[in-house]
Amino acid sequence: MLVLDIEGSGLSYEKNSIVSLGAIDLENPTNRFYAECRVWDGAHIEPDALEVNGFTKEEVTDSNKMTEAELIRNFIGWAQDLHNRTFAGQNVSYDRDMAKAAAHRAHLDWNFAHRTIDVHTLGWMHMVKRGLIPPLDEEHHRSALNLDVLLNYCGIPEEPQPHNALTGALCHAEVISRLLHNKKLLPEFEQYEISW
């Protein structure tokens, strides 16, 4: 699996840009990718998105940073020879669609699968199989099983704020290992015991 996390200038893969991308080869977790870039010319920059990822408008428009096209080219090159390039992460369809849109904007071939493995689904299933009721957002009538809830469920503190795409990918990878294999994966989380 290729654990992927993207921070963007917003949530629309058509209007917004990647600002950072983090990835981990789950079969070889020391094989990691992280890069930051400036937004593509004309991309929308949503203040709420910057509040989440901690970047400033000046940082995401810094002409000294690589372009989104350079970032996605580097990522595709890094991932090309991985044995299993199935994307995994929390709400990973967003990350897949942002990366795919960036590749298309850069006129690059996209040969990653559409199928993904979502951490939310793994966590929901794990809880149900243990006889637990996953948390529900009563106001909006939907799942409240976000990454921080899953981290806590697995015995790990919430992700630091603001976070970048590499910290997100590290968190996703550790949660996946604990949910699927009942074992710790990364040295960054070694001190936290599995909670079940």
Question: Concise description?
Answer:
This protein is α/β, with parallel strands linked by helices and 196 residues long. The protein has helices at residues 47-53, 57-60, 68-79, 92-105, 119-129, 147-153, 165-181; strands spanning 2-8, 18-25, 32-36, 87-89, 116-118, 136-137, 142-143.
Structure description:
The chain has a single domain (about 1-190), classed as Ribonuclease H-like superfamily/Ribonuclease H (Nucleotidyltransferase, domain 5). About 35% of the residues lie in helices and about 15% in strands. It contains seven helices and seven strands; from the N terminus they run βββαααβαβαββαα. Strands 3-2-1-4-5 form a five-stranded mixed beta sheet, with helices on both faces. Strands 6-7 form a two-stranded antiparallel ribbon. α4 (about 90-105) links the parallel β4 and β5 (about 115-120). The mean pLDDT is about 95.
Label the CATH architecture.
Answer: 2-Layer Sandwich
Strand arrangement in the largest pleated sheet: 3-2-1-4-5
Radius of gyration (CA) equals 17 Å
Q: What is the H/E order? A: EEEHHHEHEHEEHH
Envelope shape: globular
Q: Strand percentage, roughly?
A: 15-25%
Residue runs with pLDDT of under 50 for 5 or more positions: none
Share of helix, binned: 25-40%
Regarding quaternary structure, what we see is: single chain
- CATH domain class name: Alpha Beta
Output the CATH topology: Nucleotidyltransferase, domain 5
Count the E strands.
7
What's the overall average pLDDT, rounded? 97
Task: Give the helix/strand class.
Answer: alpha/beta
Number of self-contained structural domains: 1
- CATH-defined superfamily: Ribonuclease H-like superfamily/Ribonuclease H
Largest sheet: 5 strands, mixed
- Helix count from the secondary structure assignment: 7
